[in-house]
Amino acid sequence: MPPARHASSAAEFVPPEGSGLAALRRAAADCRGCELYEPATRTVFGAGPADARLLLVGEQPGDVEDRQGEPFVGPAGKLLDKALDEADLAREGVYLTNAVKHFKFVPAERGERRIHKTPTRGEVVACLPWLHAELALIRPELVVCLGATAAKAVLGPSFKVTERRGRVERAEDHDVIATVHPSAVLRAPDRDEAYRKFLADLRAVRAHLGRAARRGAGERETAP
Boundaries of each Uracil-DNA glycosylase-like domain copy (predicted)? Predict the structure, then answer.
């Protein structure tokens, strides 16, 4: 059964300034920034270390995530785990979140898995303060956008993953690389080829982090 909800004012879904991740997670649980909270089971906030060098942002939680309350624990999450491992990116060191924190879905018959619906631009914009708060607290060296919704949330509505996937972009204070969402790999007609390209993008992510680490080490060695 979904957790009980209480009435809330507009101020309650504005991320409190100066809060840590735990406080943000608690505040987001009562978010009423758009109507998606009504049918969803719960808010699915981000998860991972507060000092993560790498932050991955997807579109929204899916059916399994909505039930369990954690991001990327369903089929797409399992594929992501496999790809992260093959790219030498340990999930334990990655912060995972979504542009939209509530599951938007098509109602299903009893016992069937609910199918997600793409959030509108207005729903993404309503949820952006939470993502911005996560980015401000974690200050990752690199943000990876998984799919078009995440990429447009971070890089602007005109950004096209199909044209610029795998390239290093710049948004605010962050380097950003956009790729497809792992669920797109699962839906691809040629899943092996789609997975190969997805893995190549994550290996580019690993290479970028390696270069950043070497630059940082060089700066420390030459510092007076």
Answer: 45-203
Residue 206 lies in a domain: yes
Q: Which of 49, 151, 139, 119 is nearest to 91 (CA)?
A: 49
Whole-structure pTM value: 0.88
Q: Which amino acid is it at 25? A: R
Distance CA(37)–CA(30), nearest Å, equals: 9
What's the mean pLDDT in 112-138?
93
Cα 45 from Cα 134, distance rounded (Å): 10
Is residue 7 in some structural domain?
no
Q: Residue 163 belongs to a domain with what CATH number? A: 3.40.470.10
**Does the structure show a pLDDT above 50 at 8?**
no
Mean pLDDT of 33-48: 95
Structurally, how many domains does the chain consist of?
1
Per-residue pLDDT, averaged over 129-144, amounts to 95
Task: Please report, for residues 80, 88, 216, the alpha-carbon distance to residue 83 in angstroms, rounded to integers and kept in the order given.
Answer: 5, 9, 26
